[in-house]
Amino acid sequence: MAGALLDPVALRSSEDAFVDRLFEAAPRAGAPMLVARFPRAYVDLNRKEDELDPALIAGVERVATNPRIAAGLGVIPRVVGEGRAIQAGKISMEEAQLRLRQAYRPFHKMLEQILLQQRRRFGSAILFDCHSMPHDALSAAPLVHGRRPDVILGDRFGASCGHWLIDAAMGIFTAEGFAVARNAPFAGGFITQHYGKPVSGIHALQIEIDRKLYMDERTILPHSGFREASERLARVVVALAQVCDQAQSLAAE
Q: Angle of helix 105-122 relative to helix 226-252, nearest 10 degrees?
């Protein structure tokens, strides 16, 4: 990124690195898979489009306090991990709108089209919003049988999907040996909140995977545990697809 204060590795510290590879079994299991091909330091898809940071973007008026914007984590982030500033000074409103026009809006337009198409075809749609989380962030997570969780499932405390879906996902991840927690400290972001409307037949569940399971967070490279993690998650994906098939068969009847 032009004007960045940080080196490429530091810029990637907030990235959901390799998550597409971890869940690459999804298309083979019959599920559409939408992957972002640009970094979160450029634009954050898991924020509302109007969460513009006046400390970063010239011409943005200050509005009521928003904790994400105040922390530098608006739709165009001001900081990456550990609060490190991405660049000095501000960017123009034109630059901000360019990023939204070229990256943010096409992604969300495609995601919405996929969900509506699936609902028309099957009577319901199920979205798994897959992310990775820094291992240190789990210090605030509840212990699962005396250990930090490997996976956190977020359903906005029951608002974004049917209880049957998160219950099934909990069982599937647990059966693969993962320690799983619900909603703490990650209950789901904008994507889960915005698209998850169970009463309208669209269910959204956020999946957060501990980066320590598969990568070196200092170098942002896969480590020796990557293959095992990806194989276990491939089995999870197949099992989740089977649950979704059963649910959608019922919805279509």
A: 50
Of the candidates 78, 86, 84, 82, the residue with the CA atom closest to the CA atom of residue 52: 78
- Whole-angstrom CA distances from 139 to 74, 125, 134, 156, 192 are 24, 34, 10, 20, 23
Residue 38 vs residues 35, 57, 102, 159, 169: alpha-carbon distances, Å = 9, 20, 10, 29, 28
The residue-averaged pLDDT of 46-66 equals 91
- Cα(26)–Cα(124) distance, integer angstroms: 18
Tokens of 250: 């019922």
By residue count, the chain amounts to 253
Sequence-ordered strand ranges (E) for the chain = 79-80, 84-85, 125-133, 151-154, 180-182, 202-210, 215-216, 221-222
The CA distance from 165 to 206, in Å, is 11
Structure tokens that stand for 5 in this block: 């204060």
Tell me the per-residue pLDDT of 189-241, one tens digit each, with 9 for 90 and over: 999 999 999 999 999 999 999 999 999 999 999 999 999 999 999 999 999 99
Give CA separation, 90 vs 1, 59, 60, 85, 248, in Å: 14, 10, 11, 11, 47
- CA 194-205-11 angle, to 5 degrees, is 80
Model pLDDT for residues 10-45, shown as the tens digit of each residue: 989 999 999 999 999 999 999 999 999 999 999 999
Backbone conformation region of residue 150, classed left if phi is above 0, alpha if psi is from -120 to 50, else beta: alpha
pTM over cut 0.85:
yes
